[in-house]
Fold these 2 entries.
Entry 1:
Amino acid sequence: MFRSLLILILLVHDIFSKDVVLNFGGHNKHSHGNRAKRQVIIRGEDQDQYKWPNNTVHYYFDEENFDFSMEETILRAMEMLSSHTCIKFSTEPSDVIIRMESDSDSNYCFSEIGHVRENQQFSFTSNCYSVGLAVHEIIHSLGFMHAHQRADRDEYLHFVMDLDGMSLQDRQQYDIWEHQILLVPYDYGSVMQYADADDNYFPINKNRFMYQTMGSEVVAFYDYLMINKYYECSCGHDAPKCQNFGYPNPSNCSQCNCPYGFGGDDCSQRAEPGTTLQATKEWQNTTISLDAGFRHVNHLRMRQIDYIYSYLWIMAPENKTTEIRVLQSVSGKCLRGCGRGAIEIKTNEDPRLTSPRFCCNESKTVRSSHTPTVVMAYNSEGLNEYTIAYRYVDTE
Ligand SMILES: *[C@@H]1O[C@H](CO)[C@@H](O)[C@H](O)[C@H]1NC(C)=O
Ligand SMILES: *[C@@H]1O[C@H](CO)[C@@H](O)[C@H](O)[C@H]1NC(C)=O
Ligand SMILES: *[C@@H]1O[C@H](CO)[C@@H](O)[C@H](O)[C@H]1NC(C)=O
Ligand SMILES: *[C@@H]1O[C@H](CO)[C@@H](O)[C@H](O)[C@H]1NC(C)=O
Ligand SMILES: *[C@@H]1O[C@H](CO)[C@@H](O)[C@H](O)[C@H]1NC(C)=O
Ligand SMILES: [Zn+2]
């Protein structure tokens, strides 16, 4: 009968995004004893209640209230999701359907969580702009909450925010929800993780270098996997064997979904475009240049709605440690969340997890004990050039 109505609002300034829950349904706080604590990031007690049937999201653009300059952003976001998961998007009429608008009064972006009702709300404006933020909103529509609202977030974030002093509406973007299933590990680089705009929550201890990485508009490997697990998307037995922690891609079972930096149908190759370099005992330098150009809209020069990427594979002999030092990065891109471009050195042992990103001009040496070490650069605006130095040393 009564379905809780939950609306999230994403308010985006240049460097941070902020969701606000507008309306709060009746029964998120109840639980019925025998259910184990679960989460992903779905709400409600019945984990299937808010799933889209047949993995198909129905939507239409409201002709009167949608800003069609944002149509390409939304369609690309859908294309990214449908090419990595079994989720499909359909403009066929349906009882439950998303009405896409651009709420120009608030300039907010928001979405209801999951498959809810006829003409359910979704707003996307030019303030939000990027494909990554459109993916964020659509992932809400698929039934998921924010990463920093996961049941395990206190193991990853040190919250100093005064939640009790906040309005209910604000709180609902930060509170841990009761009914959750955790389907994937915590990833600070999730597109569902807010940047820490006001020094309110920090990655704990050893993860402190993940600070800039929070607030990412790059869709994480684990974001797609979370969707595939919840919607039970999979491939049959003849799917290819995937290397380097990839898994068969439910949208095309002849390919794999690969961690960033790996490619080819089975993730055994270097992702393109890219270069492979051999580390030596001596420091060597290399410069990565990524020219994203600009998007021209009504004579305005804007950043692109999506990123371009390039990859390095830095090879070292077996059992050696690779050291990589970022010597110089790009001015004007030092933003929380590194939304305009950054370099990420994949030091994490699990290549599926996001590693620390660098978008400020800081000189830092990082170490990796695997080979290849993937260095990923991405950019959405003009020319970015990053200079790094690399070598190998004996493993201690
Ligand atoms: C799901 O797909 C089946 C078979 O194609 C169809 O009969 C059914 O109506 C679909 N359900 C919805 C809710 O679209
Ligand atoms: C699926 O992937 C294979 C292997 O990369 C490719 O040849 C094929 O065109 C893809 N199919 C579709 C429908 O995209
Ligand atoms: C690498 O770049 C740094 C800083 O630009 C410079 O000091 C150093 O000499 C360079 N090293 C090599 C081997 O080119
Ligand atoms: C690397 O380390 C492993 C485990 O300690 C050892 O078995 C192997 O022989 C080492 N390889 C080389 C080339 O040193
Ligand atoms: C980055 O810092 C280096 C060393 O402090 C400096 O030489 C360089 O000009 C800076 N680059 C930018 C783009 O700010
Ligand atoms: Zn959100």
Entry 2:
Amino acid sequence: MQIGKYLSLALLGVSAVVAQTQNQTQNDNNSTIYDLLSAPNNNLNASRFIGLVNSDTGYQPIINLLKNPGNLTCFVPSDGVLNKVLTVWKAYAKQHKINVTGDYPPANMSYNNYTVSDLITYHIVGDRVNLTNLTDHNISVSVVHSVLNNSKVDHLGTGLPILIGNNASYAEFHNQTWMQANGSYLEYEVGNGHDDTDVDIKDVNATNGLINIISSVLIPPMSPTTVIKEVDDLDGFEELLKKYPIIGSTLNSTTNFTLFAPASDALKKANLTGMNNDTIQDLVRSHLVEGVYYTPNITANALTNDGNTNFTTFSNITFPAYVNSTSGYITLNKTARIVDSNIFFNNGVMHVVDSIISNDTEHDHDD
Ligand SMILES: *[C@@H]1O[C@H](CO)[C@@H](O)[C@H](O)[C@H]1NC(C)=O
Ligand SMILES: *[C@@H]1O[C@H](CO)[C@@H](O)[C@H](O)[C@H]1NC(C)=O
Ligand SMILES: *[C@@H]1O[C@H](CO)[C@@H](O)[C@H](O)[C@H]1NC(C)=O
Ligand SMILES: *[C@@H]1O[C@H](CO)[C@@H](O)[C@H](O)[C@H]1NC(C)=O
Ligand SMILES: *[C@@H]1O[C@H](CO)[C@@H](O)[C@H](O)[C@H]1NC(C)=O
Ligand SMILES: *[C@@H]1O[C@H](CO)[C@@H](O)[C@H](O)[C@H]1NC(C)=O
Ligand SMILES: *[C@@H]1O[C@H](CO)[C@@H](O)[C@H](O)[C@H]1NC(C)=O
Ligand SMILES: *[C@@H]1O[C@H](CO)[C@@H](O)[C@H](O)[C@H]1NC(C)=O
Ligand SMILES: *[C@@H]1O[C@H](CO)[C@@H](O)[C@H](O)[C@H]1NC(C)=O
Ligand SMILES: *[C@@H]1O[C@H](CO)[C@@H](O)[C@H](O)[C@H]1NC(C)=O
Ligand SMILES: *[C@@H]1O[C@H](CO)[C@@H](O)[C@H](O)[C@H]1NC(C)=O
Ligand SMILES: *[C@@H]1O[C@H](CO)[C@@H](O)[C@H](O)[C@H]1NC(C)=O
């Protein structure tokens, strides 16, 4: 069975913007995540989620996770968003004459190698991640890993990543005066790095982990070519992939890499007209580094060494990266600044840069 349209509608249509009301919910200190979410008249606003996981025995492994002892963090879509998704799903099922008995899609229905059960599993992190406490530790963005690690969809085998961020800039975050005044009003977002959703209620404590209520569904990281199409400012790179399909298939089939993808303006400036196939492939390889480097890793590495670290590309060239400790800006090879970061693939990560990374650079960025 296919839920392509349902999923893409969920993707495109249901990113509901809901005002954040980060109410802290009190509890009796002896309830599991499952207990809290299914308690009558609770104020978590997530009865549809509980309805979903109870609708089909295929969701039992998820219920077990939420009921058994453990240390988890769940991002639970609110009733508002699940109602919309389910409406889309029902219309889709009707149109495609799929036999639906209840309100909910079956656990084993699949789309692009993901079952619905996988999609839900992506919302669960195998660790206690207290969002408020991230603030206390001066971490402005954080990458955590979901318990979804089946090799069909997670080519890295680390558990598909989830990005947690908030609406403070790096500079604000590292300014104690600013944080004292504003820290408790920060709003949090989670997602795959290019499609992020608001956290409406955060850090609800249960015996086996924490619950956060979110205002859309989380979309797991997909293949590089799929993701690149969806990211703003990469039209030029997308054109390149169309013209040279070998680049896209190489990105799709490689694992464990970081791609520094030049933004459209950067490619325009570089004027690739007239370059041959080999030169272009080499250019792309010079933006590709082995290993998955999220910005918190790059920053942490660099700040132990006066802001400097090095990367070695697939074309075997080593270039420096510099992290400005005030602004947090990351500049590669003295010229290319990361302007959009931590966009996840199922096999690596991408950062968008505002200039190509070339070996013959003359002008430095002023930062
Ligand atoms: C948060 O608390 C306020 C005041 O108690 C209440 O009006 C509001 O409905 C609550 N919001 C949520 C999402 O529970
Ligand atoms: C907590 O709940 C468990 C399971 O329901 C029960 O066995 C235990 O006695 C409870 N502990 C406290 C301190 O209430
Ligand atoms: C949860 O984490 C705590 C602290 O690290 C640990 O003591 C406890 O055993 C863990 N619980 C489970 C069920 O893994
Ligand atoms: C639809 O599903 C129900 C329950 O699983 C089953 O009894 C019924 O025969 C199915 N109908 C069709 C047309 O497959
Ligand atoms: C599904 O998995 C197969 C085998 O790993 C792979 O060849 C195919 O490209 C995947 N499909 C999608 C849409 O990711
Ligand atoms: C906050 O996080 C730190 C490190 O991540 C951890 O050691 C500490 O126990 C956490 N504190 C609370 C209150 O969760
Ligand atoms: C989360 O961390 C904050 C700040 O350290 C702390 O006040 C709060 O009690 C923690 N919440 C949970 C559920 O651990
Ligand atoms: C830190 O934040 C305070 C309060 O917003 C502001 O007045 C001050 O200029 C900031 N300091 C720096 C170095 O940006
Ligand atoms: C959260 O719940 C755990 C397990 O019940 C408990 O040990 C911890 O003290 C609670 N934390 C807070 C901040 O209430
Ligand atoms: C990359 O993988 C995706 C998902 O399997 C597939 O849809 C796409 O056609 C692939 N692109 C290339 C250029 O191989
Ligand atoms: C780009 O390069 C091509 C071939 O080298 C050249 O003909 C063209 O004028 C250049 N375009 C710009 C805008 O520099
Ligand atoms: C990914 O690449 C990094 C850097 O080369 C390496 O340290 C790491 O072991 C690799 N991980 C896997 C799973 O291959």
